[in-house]
From TrEMBL:
Annotated ranges, domain Nitrite/sulphite reductase 4Fe-4S: 95-203
Superkingdom of origin: Bacteria
Cited Pfam families: NIR_SIR
InterPro entries the record matches: NasD-like, NO2/SO3_Rdtase_4Fe4S_dom, NO2/SO3_Rdtase_4Fe4S_sf
Record-level Gene Ontology MF annotations: heme binding; iron-sulfur cluster binding; metal ion binding; oxidoreductase activity
Entry protein name: Nitrite reductase
Keywords (A to Z) from UniProt: Heme, Iron, Iron-sulfur, Metal-binding, Oxidoreductase
Organism from which the protein derives: Paenibacillus darwinianus
Amino acid sequence: MGTTKFAVTPGFEVGGTLFKPEQLQVLGSIVGEDAKIELTTFKQLYVEMSEDGVEQAKKKLRESGLEIHPAGFYTKSLITCNFCKGAEEAGLQVAVRLNEAIGGHEVPSPLKIGFSGCALATGEPLLKDIGVVKMRDAYDIYIGGEGKTLRAVLGSLFMQDVPEDKLIPVVERIIRFFQANGKKKEKFSKFIERVSLETIREAAAV
């Protein structure tokens, strides 16, 4: 019997992305002694375990409140700040809906999407492929950030003052454009250089 890999995340709340002790206890008790658990740079745990028990394990993990996502070349679950200004002011519910919309889409290379609830940007959204920053009652979107390199690059301002009802459609259109036009294993920052920021902006307009 082979093994399979999937990602686990607790989602987020005021205070950040937090695994509860009882969730970790469930995880440790059901994946088996031979399982491998890896902490990723996008605040997920990758679990590699025997295929014969994976569906039951996923069921129990979801029952404990954990989210299950595919591992590999997919959009990752949303990476957020700690919502230090409070749930409403920092846009926690918008982040929850954005996370539900963007997680688990197959893409040419793994896509990291960040969200910060204010201009302090403590979630480092400008170092993500797509970064969202709440600015009072609207949102600024940045794309093309690259933090995992010796030559880190900040994302470029893509759209400014995006209203709440347009935010998720814009991000979804960016993802779909990358899905349709990106080359296999092409980093999103390289994709932007190849097709141009303006071309992506035109494709994402709503």
